[in-house]
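Can you make up a polypeptide sequence alongside its tokenized fold?
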Amino acid sequence: MPDDSRVYSYSAVLMGSPILLKLFSHDDALASRVFRLIKQYEDLLTVNRAHSQVMDINHAAGQHPVSVSRPVFDLIRCAKAASLLKDSAFNLAIGPLVKRWKIGFKGDSVPPADEIAALLAITDPHEVVLDERNGSVFLARKGMEIDLGAIAKGYIADRVRDYLHKAGTDLGLINLGGNIQTLGSPEGGWSVGLKKPFAGDELIGALAVENMSVVTSGTYERFFEHYGKRYHHILDPSTGYPLDNELDSVTIVSKDSIDGDIWTTLMYGMGVEKGCAALRARPDIEAIFVTKTKEVAISSMRHFRFTLLDNRYRITGSTA
């Protein structure tokens, strides 16, 4: 049995983020295998370099379908399904807009309105054509690009969890920079901090979880300012501009980290009231919304406990 009092931390920089692995036994070899696994998936899914299976699809847009490996095909199918939900803020075909805004990368700028309109025309998720039999993906129009950045980390966090289970590890934590997946429960559970927007590492509060994923997406993660206006990286697929509502961050607690990725984006698009209403049909998924007016709205608390650490914020919503 692992010793609950002794935690071993391993770190690497992958997917443009610091990656942290926590284990309760000293195992350099296992940590190396985990980081290698993450690197393999990053190489398959990235759009931040010239070659990957996703980039092969993008390069062939408007020309021909591209056969991909089963994990990539399944992830694209999942991302397309989320993109086709009614009024979804999730869109796997938003690549051309992400690339043009460059938010979080060198050369970010506010595109002219006519450019945004032209790029919006090639972001229709219906035009991502999937062929189940051949395992191929075809982007129907030239210039289309899929971007799995909003879903890849969650998918990889779940694969790491499965890999660790297979290796006989029942207690551990993987943090992929915004996506945290936990295995088992050390004494008192895992404590995951809820960051205060635009305040570095200051915390609003802490969640206690076990065997759950915690995914946070915030307007403070990647943004730039232009003539006093802040532009963040969470784009509205219906307008092509950053989503503008009452939210500073959304945290999703769920079994699978991929659900956390999808639902943080969906919840951003819905806002607090509609988001909480939608989650009533999903008792397996819970949300914590942090608003610009310093409210912490919690959809429910079946799968975690929350402790407020900053009394300038106030908790609203259900605590069922």
Observations:
- The chain has a mean pLDDT of 92.
